[in-house]
């Protein structure tokens, strides 16, 4: 024990000598080594603005821009919009919030060629007899597809600046009483109050409890807070629906 105390004293004295040397020399070197100098580091914040309409953004990332022709993460959403016959000018109107579907939200696989039957639209909403996952949008009635896309366009602009931990319920463009599970045609937004500020959609007290055959209605945005010239865009990679317990 005495040996340990002695060694600690030696270390303490050594540190004092180093600090005194630094204070008196205003040094640029210590023991022949260069000391690190103070440097001003400019801080930057990623600009969330994309300087284009939501519709142009969707097309750029669905059809593949000339600069990156393989960038087609919204290809399946774009195909669904065109099939549905929805008025695409809805994606250019100001004062809106848009939920964009990553390809995985439309069709994803749980393993190999097995379609994820609760995590993507084609798997959750089966078709035919017997009921099987869809292979394309054309397997559904146009009206069903159109109504789904209307439920992903929200009245008003809602993003990190005005969404908080408590769920915020807003009206979508889906006509009221179209969806029996959501007669008021609502959508819920909230931001989890942690260092990651996770943006959650349809996550609210009283929402349906997930089971083996039902995914949670509440999902986390894959990318949130993209600011188009006519409103925020939030990207999801899971099927979105609204359902209470």
Characterization of the model:
By secondary structure, the protein is α+β, with helices and mostly antiparallel strands. The strands form 4 sheets. Strands 6-3-12-11 form a 4-stranded mixed β-sheet. The protein has a 4-stranded antiparallel β-sheet with strand order 7-8-9-10, with no helix packed on it. It has 6 helices and 12 strands. Helix 2 crosses helix 3 (75-84) and helix 3 packs across helix 6. The protein has 2 domains: 2-34; 54-236, FAS1 domain. The chain has helices at residues 2-25, 54-63, 75-84, 103-106, 121-124, 142-150, and strands spanning 29-30, 33-34, 96-101, 109-111, 114-115, 153-155, 168-171, 186-191, 199-201, 219-220, 223-228, 231-236. Helix content is 25%, strand content 18%. The longest helix is centred in the first third of the chain and has 24 residues, at 2-25. Mean pLDDT is 87; it is low at 4-11 and 16-22. 28% of the residues are buried.
What is the gist of this entry?
With 245 residues, this protein is of the alpha+beta class.
Strand order of the largest sheet: 6-3-12-11
- Multimer state: single chain
Number of helices: 6
From the 3D structure, determine the CATH topology of the largest domain: FAS1 domain
CATH superfamily of the largest domain: FAS1 domain
* Residue windows where pLDDT falls under 50 for at least 5 positions: 4-11, 16-22
Number of E-type strands: 12
Radius of gyration: 27 Å
């Amino acid at each position: 024990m005495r040996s340990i105390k002695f060694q600690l004293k030696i270390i303490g004295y050594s540190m004092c000598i180093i600090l005194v040397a630094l204070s008196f020399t205003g040094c640029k070197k210590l023991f022949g080594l260069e000391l690190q100098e103070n440097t001003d580091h400019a801080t930057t914040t990623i600009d969330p603005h994309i300087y284009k309409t939501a519709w142009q953004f969707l097309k750029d990332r669905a059809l593949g821009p000339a600069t990156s022709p393989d960038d087609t993460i919204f290809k399946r959403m774009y195909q669904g919009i065109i099939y549905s016959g929805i008025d695409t000018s809805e994606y250019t109107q100001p004062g809106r919030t848009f939920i964009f579907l990553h390809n995985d939200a439309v069709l994803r696989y749980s393993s190999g060629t097995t379609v994820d039957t609760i995590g993507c639209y084609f798997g959750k909403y089966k078709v035919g007899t017997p009921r099987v996952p869809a292979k394309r949008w054309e397997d559904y009635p146009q009206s069903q597809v159109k109504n789904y896309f209307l439920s992903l366009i929200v009245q008003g602009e809602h993003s990190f600046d005005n969404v908080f931990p408590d769920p915020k319920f807003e009206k979508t463009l889906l006509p009221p009483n179209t969806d029996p599970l959501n007669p008021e045609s609502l959508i819920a937004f909230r931001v989890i109050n942690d260092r990651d500020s996770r943006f959650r959609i349809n996550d609210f007290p009283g929402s349906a409890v997930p089971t083996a055959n039902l995914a949670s209605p509440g999902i986390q945005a894959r990318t949130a807070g993209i600011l188009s010239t006519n409103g925020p865009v939030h990207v999801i990679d899971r099927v979105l629906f609204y359902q209470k317990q």
